[in-house]
Amino acid sequence: MFNLSNNRRERKYPRSKSGPGVSVLLALVMVAVIGAMCLAGAAYADPLDTWTLRNSGGYSLYDIAYGNGTFVVTGIDGTILTSTDNGVTWTSKNSGPVTMLYGIAYGNGTFVVVGINGEIFTTTDNWVTLTSRNSGTKRSLFGIAYDNETFAAVGVYGTILTSTDNGVTWTPRNSGTTEHLRNIGYGNETFVAMGDNGAFLTSTDNGVTWTPRNSGTTKSLADIAYGNGTFAAVGTDDTTILTSTDNGVTLPMPPEAGKFLLVGVIVTLVQTDVVANIATIVWFAVIFVIVYVRPVA
């Protein structure tokens, strides 16, 4: 969902995207938690106190979504993994094309997957069949979100596409930026997209029109989540965290003291040529969970 460098290449990560034989290494993932920005010193119980490494088959993985009782992960070389037992076991699905699948979202009975060179795929039968859709662009798409009516996808050079028919047809939208947009989130009737050099955009009309916002940073923004009336965005440098309680209009950085709690260290697989940290964020019941990945020295 994000690129660790500020260059203009159409790559989601600073790592190889094509060809077989991509090597992997173990990286430590540090999990930090921020509450509703007022939970300093709080004690957190399971399930975040302990983590279990699951076998993904050694694939490089980019995004995850949940729908219809199924977790679905997308990744390198057309990787699609599904789990119907809460992530304990994973089954590889045949995506058909050998391509980079960067983002996935679920809505209205449909999973929609986006990837390199404008690739979009949909499935409505829990991955029995996967249908390729015409996005109308060859620009790589990195992130996708659903707002109960519309799917919105973002990508390189400010690309934004929307679909109101479950991903069958797509309409390009004017983002007003040429920055690479790394991800998109939805909450409180608002789409929020972010990307390189602090790019931050909001839409309150199902992704039709977009308003640029001042993020207050020039750092690349990697991911965003919504919960408890708050948008929280994270950057790729393991220090940039922005929050907004007014649907992205203002984005103050929360005070550092007492806002974070280290709750665990787990192991995952990433590419060997990671050159910086990456981050993702999710809303988990009552707290935001931030995951950072660092290469092993």
Offer a concise description of the structure.
The chain has no helices and 23 strands.
Shape: globular
- Roughly how many Å apart are the termini? 24 Å
Q: In which order are the strands of the major sheet placed?
A: 21-1-23-22
**CATH fold-level label of one domain:** Methylamine Dehydrogenase, Chain H
Order of helices and strands: EEEEEEEEEEEEEEEEEEEEEEE
**Average pLDDT:** 75
In CATH, what is the class of one domain? Mainly Beta
CATH architecture of one domain: 7 Propeller
Unreliable runs: 1-46, 255-276
CATH homologous superfamily of one domain?
YVTN repeat-like/Quinoprotein amine dehydrogenase
What is the number of beta strands? 23
Q: Strand fraction band?
A: 35-45%
* Structural class computed from helices and strand pairing: mainly beta
Rg measurement, Å:
18 Å
Helical region count?
Answer: 0
| Main sheet specs | 4 strands, antiparallel
How much helix is in the residues? under 10%
Keywords: Membrane, Transmembrane, Transmembrane helix
Organism: Candidatus Magnetobacterium bavaricum
Protein name: Cell wall/surface repeat protein
InterPro entries: WD40/YVTN_repeat-like_dom_sf
Can you walk me through this structure?
InterPro entries: WD40/YVTN_repeat-like_dom_sf (IPR015943). This is Cell wall/surface repeat protein. Keywords: Membrane, Transmembrane, Transmembrane helix. It contains no helices and 23 strands. Helices cover about 0% and strands about 45% of the residues. The protein has strands at about 25-35, 60-65, 70-75, 80-85, 90-95, 100-105, 110-115, 120-125, 130-135, 140-145, 150-155, 160-165, 170-175, 180-185, 190-195, 200-205, 210, 220-225, 230-235, 240-245, 260-270, 280-285, 285-295. With about 300 residues, it is mainly beta. The chain has a domain at about 60-245: Methylamine Dehydrogenase, Chain H. A hairpin with a 7-residue loop joins β16 and β17 (about 210). The strands form six sheets. The chain has a four-stranded antiparallel β-sheet with strand order 21-1-23-22, with no helix packed on it. A four-stranded antiparallel β-sheet has the order 2-3-4-5, with no helix packed on it. Strands 6-7-8-9 form a four-stranded antiparallel β-sheet, with no helix packed on it. The two termini are about 25 Å apart.
